[in-house]
Amino acid sequence: MLRDEPGQRSLKKNLMLASSTASVAGMTNVVGVMAFLSFVSNVTGHVATLAGKITEQDMAEVYTVLYWLFMFFFGAFVSNFIVKSLDYRSAYFAHSTPIVLEIIILLAVAIYGNDVYNGSDLQREAITGAVLFCMGLQNGLVSRISGGLIKTSHLTGLITDLAGELSDLLHPQVENTRVLREKIYIRVTVLVFFIIGGILGGYLFNAIGMATFFVIPMVLLTILLYDIYPVLLHRLRKWWIT
């Protein structure tokens, strides 16, 4: 999923990347709402909140929302910067590094949430910013890998694009092409798995609380292992035989 660049990717790999990362975004968003009373991937909602708080002249909330927006932006910025800086080594190494960083931060959130978090406004705002940074990392990386085709948390734009592409698919004057159908498959996959991830995240949070943040990195870990498990398996067999 992480080895190929845009233009070299098969539909299967795009669907796998879309489903896995969308489920992570859905889980994280729902758990963020339940744990911290704030969306952690809905940037559009935060911009609307920012406008409302400016109108109300609630400057404390304005600064908080600006911090959240910056963290998502900074996550996407860091993701792209890392990929650009490490691309000379290999596509897999460059693309996997932001995911490793995301895993580390989410595990830190899980540990902090379980052992330290007491529900104070300062802690809630800080942790929300950290998770938004993770979503920015992931969204920026997936968008770059897929050439802008996959954005795992940008559902407003996704549904708009899906509606336009379905309209083209059904229109008698538009050619029904393989590229068009593949775009529709990918967008539907993102939408469905975001919902599935959200439902799973809600059930898990009700069952194990903040420990849900230990589960989310496991999904990301499968993305990292998918490309290298054949190599690891080969080396393990070679070691076992010798």
State the helicity in percent bands. Answer: over 70%
Largest beta-sheet details: none
β-strand percent reads: under 5%
The best one-word shape is globular
Instruction: Give the termini separation.
Output: 31 Å
In total, how many beta strands? 0
Mean pLDDT: 88
- Could you list the spans in which at least 5 consecutive residues all have pLDDT below 50? none
Secondary-structure-based class equals mainly alpha
Order of helices and strands: HHHHHHHH
Number of helical elements? 8
Radius of gyration: 19 Å
Q: Could you describe the 3D structure shown?
A:
This protein is mainly alpha-helical and 242 residues long. The radius of gyration is 19 Å and the shape is globular. The mean pLDDT is 88. Helix 2 (43-56) packs antiparallel against helix 3 (59-86) and helix 3 runs parallel beside helix 5 (121-145). The protein has helices spanning 11-36, 43-56, 59-86, 91-115, 121-145, 155-170, 178-208, 212-241. The two termini are 31 Å apart. The protein is 81% helix and 0% strand.
